[in-house]
Amino acid sequence: MSIGYACLIVGLRDVEYKTCRMDNASETRLIELIGHNLLTLEKMIDYNITNQIQMFRITSDLIPFGSSPVNQIDWPIVFKSDFNRIGEKIRSGLIRVSMHPGQYTVLNSLDDSVVDRAIQDLVYHAKILDALNTDPSSKIILHVGGIYGDKPAAIDRFVTTYVRLPDEVKRRLVIENDDRSYTIEDVLAVSKRTGAPVVYDNLHNLLLPSEQEGDDLFWIGEAKKTWKEIDGNQKIHYSQQDPAKQNGSHSQSIQIEKFLPFYQLLDHVDVMLEVKDKNLSAIKCINCTRSDHKIKLLENEWSLYKYNVLERDPSGYQKIRVLLKDKDQYPALDFYRILEKSLAKTPTIGTMINGFQHVFGYFKNQVSESERALFFKKTDGYQTGSETAGSVKKYLEKLALKYQEEYLLKSYYFILN
DNA sequence: TGACGTCAAGATCCG
DNA sequence: CGGATCTTGACGTCA
């Protein structure tokens, strides 16, 4: 019953993937980028270990142009020691990693060259998971593809192509229902013919339900039957709709109150969250479902979020302070409930300035006179409308970097919004 | 031909 | 000059 997140970390400095344009993809540039990206992946794995996050999707952008002829580098060999080292960390951290090619990897296209490139892309994904020495429970999740005006024929083509996939791909390939073409019912039928396990996605099912009626739990039960022992725990995707946006846009954060009743129905299922705030929601959901109840976990979370709360909801700030006073309790749900409510509020000029002043307090005894003057000038400018909140915060961040205020630099104050 | 989705590169604007 | 903001690229399908 692990909970994980996809590809990127929010709120950590200097943990970013790089890429380049095709025109600039020289061998030297690519080697540079791959080396950088592997270090980034390693930092993410380290973060997951520290935070006891045991499920993680590795980005398809790890190797720029990884499945394109533009990239001729034999990267599993060139970077063998890096892959081995990272793979070792993944194993010792008991992290289940996976990958998920995007919507443009289409196995059942009418265009053979598209199909060939899709196969190459799957081989690329398998090569990464193999280079990391992960076992067959590390999956590659794929959608079935397009319809082309004839769904049965399109499904037939998927099955035909599936059969001729190389074994290193087949042993990892998992298929998922999507939100415009293939329902969970369709995907289960494809699984019957291919043997590929099925990932159920709750939001996709909401947007594109099957003809046969069934709730989440029913379809999760059906999907479970497609997972064999060697495939590891059943996996599902879980996300919530962003209420402000259109179609199947993922929400900024997971609403914990909606998630918990869903999660509590599950039995031995690994849950991949698809959400904009990535690791932040993963940690929230983990903290609300774990059995080792240590207040320290919540105190650490509070240290990261507190100025984001303060700048928009001083009364929420006070509520959480009170909530965390009793060190024998573990009020995770209440904590995140207040946190979510506070972060959803729109700051006022007054609450923002209150935040600036609290943060400035960290260096008010070390700054020079001119720095102090500039801070007050910027704050005044913000109050009168000639300066944006962002520029004041940028300046505070500059000070935090100069005076190495770790507490602030680790927090989300400069990073969220 | 543009929208779709996603991210960061690359270009351009601004003080 | 550096920082902020806008546009482009890479992918395939579908209207």
Report on this model:
The structure is a single chain. This protein is an alpha/beta fold and 417 residues long. It folds into 3 domains: 3-289, TIM Barrel (Alpha-Beta Barrel), CATH 3.20.20; 295-343, no CATH class; 349-410, no CATH class. 50% of the residues lie in helices and 8% in strands. The protein is built from 18 helices and 8 strands. The protein has an 8-stranded parallel sheet. Strand 1 (3-6), helix 1 and strand 2 (55-57) form a beta-alpha-beta unit. Helix 13 (314-323) packs antiparallel against helix 14 (332-343) and helix 15 packs parallel to helix 17. The longest helix has 24 residues, at 27-50. The chain is globular. The model has no long low-confidence stretch (mean pLDDT 94). It binds a DNA duplex (15 and 15 nucleotides) through helix 4 and helix 17.
Task: Summarize the entry for a quick read.
The chain is α/β, with parallel strands linked by helices. 50% of the residues lie in helices and 8% in strands. The longest helix is centred in the N-terminal third of the chain and has 24 residues, at 27-50.
Features:
DNA-binding; TIM Barrel; 8 strands; 417 residues; single chain; alpha/beta
CATH topology of the largest domain: TIM Barrel
CATH H-level name of the largest domain... which superfamily? Divalent-metal-dependent TIM barrel enzymes
Strand content: 5-15%
Label the CATH architecture of the largest domain. Answer: Alpha-Beta Barrel
Mean pLDDT: 94
CATH class of the largest domain: Alpha Beta
- Based on secondary structure, the structural category is alpha/beta
Rounded to an integer in angstroms, the radius of gyration calculated over CA atoms is 24 Å
Topology as a string of helices (H) and strands (E): EHEHHEHEHHEHEHHEHEHHHHHHHH
Q: Work out the helix count.
A: 18
* End-to-end C-alpha gap: 31 Å
Number of domains: 3
Helical content class: 40-55%
- Spatial sequence of strands, sheet with the most strands: 3-2-1-8-7-6-5-4
Number of strands: 8
Shape: globular
Report the biggest beta sheet as strand number plus sense, adding barrel if it closes: 8 strands, parallel
The poorly predicted ranges are none
